[in-house]
Amino acid sequence: MSEQPSTHNELRGNVRGPVVQSGAIHGDVVFNSPAAPRDPESVEVDRRWDARRQRILDAEDAQRAESQRRAHQYVRVCRRKRRINAVLLLVAGVTLTLGLMQVVPELYAAVGALYGAVSVIGWARCTLIIRNWDAGRTIRVPRSRWRW
Question: What are phi and psi of 110, to 5 degrees?
Answer without folding.
Answer: -65, -45
